[in-house]
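Ligand-bound model needed. 2-acetamido-2-deoxy-beta-D-glucopyranose.
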Amino acid sequence: MFQFAIGLICIILLPTSESKLVLVLTPKNPMARVGERLVLTCSASECAGDVTFTWQSLKDRPLYGRMEKNNTASQQIFDPVGMQHEGKVSCVATCADPKDKAQRSASVEVYAFPKDPIISGSELLTEGQDSDLTCTVPDVYPADRLKVQWLLGDKVLKDNKAVNPVVKGEAQTVTSVLKYKPTAQDHGQNVTCRATLDIKTEPETRETVASITVQYSPRDVHISENIQVNIGESFTLTCQAKGHPEPTVLWRKLEKGGLSVMVGDGETLRVKETSWSHDGDYECMSHNTVGNLTAQVTVNVQGESDGR
Ligand SMILES: *[C@@H]1O[C@H](CO)[C@@H](O)[C@H](O)[C@H]1NC(C)=O
Ligand SMILES: *[C@@H]1O[C@H](CO)[C@@H](O)[C@H](O)[C@H]1NC(C)=O
Ligand SMILES: *[C@@H]1O[C@H](CO)[C@@H](O)[C@H](O)[C@H]1NC(C)=O
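Prediction:
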C-alpha cells in the first residue's frame, strides 16, 4: 500500500522532473522611493548549459531599466526609480534545452513623499469666527494612499483622506482643509497636521506642528475692591483683564446724569492727594481690536468736615 503510494507520486511528478531549473526573483515585493535605485535580480541554478534571460513587463510597455547579466543571474537596474517603473515585471529563464524554462514575476511599487506638510491659516484667527486651516503635502505618490490627520494638542480633530481628486500615475500635492471655530482657550495651543503614506511594508509619517494664535476680547477682569479714603491721603485703583491682543485699560469717573470723564489709562490709577471731587464710581474699560469689557469700583472719600 505504502509502496504503491510512492509509485503514484513518482508518476505524477515524472513529467516535470525533467526541468531542474530553479529560478528566484528578488526582492519578492520590490518597493522603492522615487529617485532611488532599485535592482531586481533573477538567479537561475540547476540549469544544464547556458541560461538565457528575458525580462518583460506585463503591460506591454518598455521596462525603462538597464540589464546586466552573467552566467547564472540577470539584473534589471532602475536608477533612478520613477513612476514609469511601477507594475508587474517578469523574468523568464531558459536553459540549453528550450523546454527547461521557468518564469517569475514581481510587482514593483513606487512611492514619493519627499517633504513635510505645510500648515497655513493658523497665525491670525479670531474667537468664534469660522476659519479654515490648510495643510499642504507636496509631491506625494500615490496620492490616494495618503491620509491626513489634524490634531489640536494631542486630541484628534479630523481624520480624512486626500480632498483633491487623484490623478493616476502622477505625484501630486495633497491638501486637507480643517473647518474650525477657535475658542480663546485654543490660543497658544499646537495644531498638528500628520500625513501618513500607507504603503505596504511600513507606513511613512511626516508631521508639522504650528502654534495657534487666536484673537479674543477682554475677559476675566480683576478690579480692586471698593475703598474708603481719607481726604488728603492717596489711593490706588487697579484693573486687569486677559485678552489677545493685550487689552488697553482706560479709566473714567462716572458723573451724575450719565456723563463720564476720562481720568487715566493703564492698569493702575493713582491719586496722590484725595479731594472731595474724587468721591464716586469709577469705571475701567479694557479694550482691544476684538471687543471691550468694563468693570466698576466705588471710592468713598471721608473727612472731618463733610464738605458737600
Ligand atoms: C552573477 O551575478 C549575481 C548577481 O549580481 C551574483 O550574485 C553572482 O555571484 C554572479 N555570478 C558570477 C559567476 O559572477
Ligand atoms: C508646542 O510645541 C512645541 C514644540 O513643537 C513645544 O515646545 C510646546 O511646549 C508646545 N506647546 C504646547 C502648548 O503644547
Ligand atoms: C465696546 O463694545 C461695544 C459692543 O460690545 C461697542 O458698541 C462699543 O463701541 C465699544 N466701545 C469702545 C470704546 O470700543
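The CA atoms of residues 247 and 287 lie 5 Å apart.
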